[in-house]
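#structure-requests
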Amino acid sequence: MLKIIEGFMQLSKYIILFCLSLVFVNCKDSNTSKQTGLNIKIKGKSLLLGDTLSLSIENPKKLNIGNITYKLDGESIENNTILNTTLGEKVITAVVTYDDNTENLSKTVKLFNNVIPKIYNYEIINTYPHDITSYTQGLEFYNGELFESTGQRKESKLRKVNFKTGEVLKNINLDDAYFGEGLTILNDKIYQLTWQANRGFVYDVNSFEKLSTFNYGKSKEGWGICNDNKTLYKSDGTEKIWFIDPENLTENGHIEVYTEKGKIPSLNELEWIDGKIYANIYQRNGVVIINPKTGGVEGVIDFKPLRKLVKQHTDLDVLNGIAYHPERKTIFVTGKNWDKLFEVKIIQQ
């Protein structure tokens, strides 16, 4: 019989989001002129995606201003432009000319999402055995086979697993110096992250032969990783998801993950599902559904009740591990040192 786990259906959307997000002050003055008092002013108390950005210059000394030009994150904009960009911290700059003088002003603002995330539930379709000693960090299906990356120093592994039986079909151990993190697979190559060593590995998916290594850029740490068949998306334990070119393995920018209230920190394991990024929130036993173009959170799934369905033991840790099976149209989830792997379908409340 299909079993529907209701989770916390009685909780309001805002209570669930409070558990997952933090609210931050919208903007701050970072370069108000001490000499002239010139300052960038923004209409409204907060900025949402799709808002019109109405700017003006506070001019307490009534200077004879001749010209003003604005930029948003280094790109020229007109006043009253519509904010259709990525979310998160943005820097607005203004070059103000008056008489024969020029003032350079800047202000840091935060751009929030313009929708309240939908709340999703789940239905357990099947339950399978999972190695209780696996500190699961990454989980992904490729050509119908399940691959797993595990963590902990001197215990980190890369594996191919029979998801129905839990049998380990192929295994290699990482060097003791590395703490394994997420993995993703693209064009017969496995990309595996490590945590604080600033290094990732590339393997042949069939032989597990290590093909190359790569270093991180500005992202510093390795947490989760997924791909859309063209680009690798990497989390680093903050609200940021970084874009990595799979050919030269360099970072090419990032998005910041925000709700309509604030940023979502501690992004961990990632999975690409039907054009969206599903991200596990470390220590929250929840998953957010992210628009990869903006960073906006469009949905929230509370998987906390699953933890009560696995063996309770001293090494039991949080939910971690999301794998989409495209043929079955289901999601597989597990956790760190869980003895079960759950196959679920997502249901909107």
